[in-house]
Every structure is written in structure tokens, then in C-alpha cells.
Amino acid sequence: MTQAELRLCSLLLQEYFGEIVEKVGNSLLRTGPRPLRLLVGDTGLLPDQVKKALCVLIQHGLVQFELQQPRGWLQYEARRQRVLRLLRYPRYIYTAKALYGDPGELLVEELLLHGHLPMSSAVARVAERLTETMEDGKSMDPTEVSNTFVRLADTRFIQRCPAAPQVPPGAKVAPGPAPASGDRDRDRDMYLVPRLGLPGRGKRRPSCDEEEEGEHKAKRPRQEGGSSEAPPDDGISWQVNLERFHQHFRDQALVSAVASRMDQTSSEVVRTMLRMSEVTTASGAAHTQPLSSNEIFRSLPAGYNIGKAVLDQYLALLADDPLEFVGKSGDSGGGTYTVNLHKALVSLATATLESIVEERFGSRCARIFRLLLRKKHLEQKQVEDFAMIPAKEAKDMLYRMLSENLVALQEIPKTPDHAPSRTFYLYTVNVMAAARMLLHRCYKSVANLMERRQHEMRENKRLLEKSQRVEAILASMQATGAEAAQLHEVEEMITGPERQQLENLKRNVNKLDASETQVDETIFVLESFIESTMKRP
Fold first, then answer.
1. Of 287, 401, 418, nearest to 340 (Cα)?
2. Among 78, 102, 136, where does a domain finish?
3. Predicted TM-score (pTM) of this structure
4. What kind and span of H or E run contains 159?
5. Which of the residues in the chain have pLDDT under 50?
6. Boundary residue ending a domain (413, 429, 445)
7. Smallest Cα–Cα separation from 39: which of 17, 61, 57?
8. Which of 22, 53, 244, 525 is deepest in the core (most CB within 10 A)?
9. What is the extent of the structural domain holding 422?
10. Amino acid 230: pLDDT
């Protein structure tokens, strides 16, 4: 784990959970898996504080534990990638709002806020929050919130939490893994929504497993010994499926790339293909499921009035494109079409690298960079000739990019003595190494942005507290029906220069937040490319 990642993880833990949780999480990130005893000694905190911090981290899925066989103690390990996902929480919530409206936004927000929740609790919380925002004393129907919850589960944006292993006291053997049989059934069960007895609720989901529901009802009296009846979803908690959100982000980036390269109709064809296979395709798959042109034609949105022949022309155009976003499978006379997800990620990552080179070093360096990407290996004289750049400028640009690790120099000796006069020096671009280096810089940039935002808030802490007090006084006076003159007098407690300072602070913080979001988009592209490349044989 690099220092930039450790610094960013520490800042995220401190911002979301406070200093105590940040100390515990930082210790696990720095030292790796550790038992509770060593964790208490390393952090200098009280055992109860460490235990509570571990409970918070486990609740949110940021720490996992394992029973060690020789001694029989629990060992805790931080999940680095999961901690870094805290940076993307606002984007998850915004996406849920764009897809499913206010109920979807609040449901995802509640699940992220609490780590995981039962369906009944999440629906009740969201219905209560929506009721508070409604006018004329109306109340939010829980059925609408429940239907949104079902839609989120059907599209796999949320899923059931896996059952935690029960570790008996003094156990010497770690709990065994789950049986390997029935993987498909187990995957389907992760998205089964239990029926809740909400008032005024009709039939919602005919595909719910009645057998499982009856089994729970039969077991409950024996488990509870005939005590008060538990809710229908007792023991079933739900969490946000981050991988499904990442799949949606990847699909959106791919559709935008097709739209900018070709036209809107081509992007809509690709969007339809991705939507048809979004549930059946695994998150790490190299390509989507094969689809025939007839299936794609029947699934096109109603607003796109294009004929079957026109669709076939678009599919052929997409399949013949050099970027190969869409591939053709089957025989040459017909066949089916797939979206090449891995090649699309490679193209997106390469375009990101090219744009970064152009922004930092200019258009001529970007020309050399694209030339090396296309030709793979070139000598300095060949770079000068192909790029049509004077020798002195080309040499300077190559050395600048070489010093920044954006290009690499490969030596091919003609003789075993590696004499410079008898050695070829070829410039090349190692896309994976360049992506890792830029990803490291992106982590560092986000950490700098977060520290700058925290510095701005600390510098204006007194003014912010004063503004909050004035707003609280105004709210209480408005609730009691105060006169306009009294309200104006309270508002004048904040002077003109202070009001201007608050505006400047708000503008600066908004810019920093927007910058964090933009850098995170680059992080997502680079991470997806590296992960997809590492999974390939």
C-alpha cells in the first residue's frame, strides 16, 4: 500500500467516522492483519474504544475478521479498496436519485449511512423522512418506498448481506466455507425481497420464494420459544451493491464515448445492448452476453423509430470500428453481437492518458505519445520522422516524458557487451505502468483537495458557528410568528464583510468538492482498466 493511498484512507476515515475510528483503521492499514491485543497497544486507546471502533468498521464492511487456528483468537484486517470507496458515496447517492427518484436516493443513503439495515427499518426511515418534507400534513405511503426497494433489488443495486460466521467462545477451528454447490441459486437468493405486511399494500412481487417464507414462519416459534412475533424480515439485512454501481458507471462512460465518436443513435444501440445484459453479465466479465440483431431491435426504446435494416447497418458500423467496442460472434453470414468491455476500458484508459499528456506537456508531446501507442517501439530518429518534429524538440519532449515515467526506454544490444554504439534504444509506452503511476498521483491529488477543504473550514470555524446560530434563531422566530423587523434585526448580526466571506468560502468549498468528483472519475477509469487487465489470462 502506497503512502498516498494510506493518507487518503486516513482522511476518509476521519471525515466519515471521527478520530478514534481513524486511528484504529489507520493502524490496520499500516500494519496488516492484527489481533485485538496488538491493536490496543499500537493505537494507545482503551480496549472498549478499540472494540467500538472495530464494530463500526465491521458494520460498514471496512474491516473483516478471521479466526486463527493455532491460538484461537480473532484477527482483524482492513479492506483498503472498500475504504477508498468512501470517496464515491455522493456519486452512488446521486445515481440512485437519477434512476429511482427521491425514495431511491434516500434508501441508498440510509444503507450507506448505517452500513446495512433490514428492509422494514429502511422503508420506515425513508417514509418518515419523506413525510417530513411533504406539505399540507400529508404522509408518505410506505408502499411506494417498498416498491422502490424492490426495484433496487431487482436491478441488483442492493443485495442481502451474507450471513456472518458464528464463532463460538474458545473455538480452535475456523468456520468452514460455504458449500460450493448451488452457486446460481445462492446468487439469486441474494436479491430475494421478503414480503412485508405494510398497510394498504397489494401484490408486489409474484416471483418471491413462497417456500422460503413458509420455512421462516415455521422456524420462528421454535427459535423464539413462542414469544412476541418478529418482523417478516427478521435476520435479513441489506447493503448497497457497490460493484453494480461501478458497472453502471462503466456503461455510462462507454455510451458517452460511443456518442462522442459516432452519433447519438449508435450510443443508444450500445446502451440497449448493455441494458439487456446488465443483470446477466458479471461485473468482471470481458464482454457481455451475445445478442442477436432481432433481440436488440425489439428492445430499442420507442422513441427511436429506426428500421431493422438501419439497425443492422449501425451494428455493422460498430463492429468494423477500429476501437472494437462492439464485436461480432458467430459465423460470417449472421451471428450475434457483444460489447467488448475489456477493449472499451483499454480505450478509455488510453484516451485518459493521452488527455493528461496533452494537458501537461502540450499537443506535440501528445502527438509523440499517440505515435508510440500506435507503433509500439520506435527509435528517436523514427519518432522525429514520423511525428514531423525537429530533432532537438523531439529529444527534449521524449526526455521530459521519460522523466515523468509516461514513456519507457528499452535497450536491445546487438552484442553481449552492451556497448552503446552497438545497442538499439527504443521508446515505448507501458500503458499499465503509466496508469498505475497516474492513479497514484490521483490519490495524492484527492488527499490534497480534502486537506485544503478542511483547512478552509478550520480557518472560518468561528464565522460558520456564528452563521449557524443566526440561522437557528431565525428559524425559531419564524416558527413563533415574529415580525419582519425583528427578523431583519437578527439578520444584521452578520455584517456585510462577513457575509461576503461566507460567500467566498461556499464558492471555494464547492470548487474543491467538484474537483474531488472529477478526479474520482479519472480514478474510476484507471482502476477499472487495471482490474480488468489483471483478471485476463
1. 287
2. 78
3. 0.82
4. strand 158-160
5. 170-184, 200-227, 332-333
6. 429
7. 57
8. 53
9. 362-429
10. 62
